[in-house]
Design brief:
300 residues; alpha/beta; Protein-Tyrosine Phosphatase, Chain A; six-stranded mixed β-sheet; three-stranded antiparallel β-sheet
Length: 300
């Protein structure tokens, strides 16, 4: 949603918005000039016509702002609809994966990771095997658009990474590195922890994971168990409900933590930020808060 807001502003729209709580994305919007971001949902936040209200799947029809928009006769657009409008304005490069999509980079060595594709050698300064494949896909797209190999190499090696995608947020007093990652699907958790293991070397990987959605956590519990087993120590935060009603679900995160404990003896429910902050990880350790949006506040 924050990305759509920035694009709309760049296209000349007057953008206002609201969110349940102040997070890194609302702060980023404010720094980028979208200053009318309200915390909490309320009727006065809804503008008068002409305007459209864009909503995500987490915002239900009975939300007070959506209800007020309908009362005022404003248009309602799901965020996917707005994205469709944006892509219709320009040539769009869409990337998808199918069983027939095969890009096999030849790994060369080290850090930054080097790989060879179509006889050219490229570097990517992002840890994790998944970033190697991401970079190879970038090469494919850039080649299809006619970019020269030297320009592709320069762009890849200078890419600083994205917020909340294995983002280095600092070090503890003991020198352990703290990374933040938005991984909230089991495959993403597996990739993030593998990258953490690569960075940690002989150190430990300490993970704080906040599941996203009760239904997903429950349905894919086995897959999450397999993913979290890669951490040396792991804590599970209460589930971030997003569009789901917490009153309809009980003990989902606790069940995940209890089952993980059987695989990794020192995995448990998180005791809270204050208690975790008192841990003294070793200098070579990597601490990885990951999962839904609220857990990023642990990296502040």
């Amino acid at each position: 949603m924050s990305g759509l807001a920035l694009v709309a502003r760049e296209l000349g729209a007057h953008v206002t918005g609201s969110d349940a709580r102040k997070i890194i994305y609302t702060a980023s919007l404010e720094r980028s000039g979208v200053s009318e971001v309200s915390i909490g949902h309320d009727v006065p936040h809804v503008p008068d016509a002409p305007a459209e209200v864009v909503f995500s799947s987490a915002i239900r029809p009975e939300n007070v702002e959506r209800a007020e928009a309908r009362r005022k006769g404003l248009g309602e657009v799901h965020r996917s609809g707005l994205l469709t409008e944006f892509t219709a304005l320009h040539e769009t490069v869409a990337v998808f994966v199918s069983e027939m999509t095969v890009v096999r980079p030849e790994f060369v060595d080290g850090e930054p990771m080097r790989f060879r594709l179509y006889g050219e050698t490229y570097e990517v300064d992002q840890p994790g095997e998944h970033q190697l494949h991401n970079a190879a896909l970038v090469v494919e797209v850039a080649r299809a658009r006619g970019c020269a190999p030297e320009d592709i190499r320069a762009a890849l090696v200078s890419f600083p990474g994205l917020a909340r995608r294995f983002e280095l947020r600092g070090r503890t007093a003991a020198g352990a590195r703290v990374y933040d990652d938005y991984a909230h699907h089991s495959v993403e958790v597996t990739a993030a922890l593998a990258a953490a293991r690569q960075v940690a070397g002989t150190g430990r990987v300490l993970a704080v994971f906040q599941p996203h959605l009760f239904s997903r956590t429950q349905q894919f519990q086995t897959e999450f168990l397999d993913a979290l087993a890669a951490a040396g120590l792991a804590w599970v935060e209460p589930v971030y409900p997003a569009r789901e009603n917490p009153e309809e679900w009980t003990h989902v995160a606790e069940q995940l933590a209890a089952d993980v404990t059987g695989r990794v003896p020192q995995t448990q429910m998180s005791p809270g930020r204050a208690d975790l902050a008192r841990l003294q990880p070793w200098r070579r350790d990597v601490r990885l808060p990951g999962g839904a949006v609220p857990v990023q506040s642990w990296c502040g």
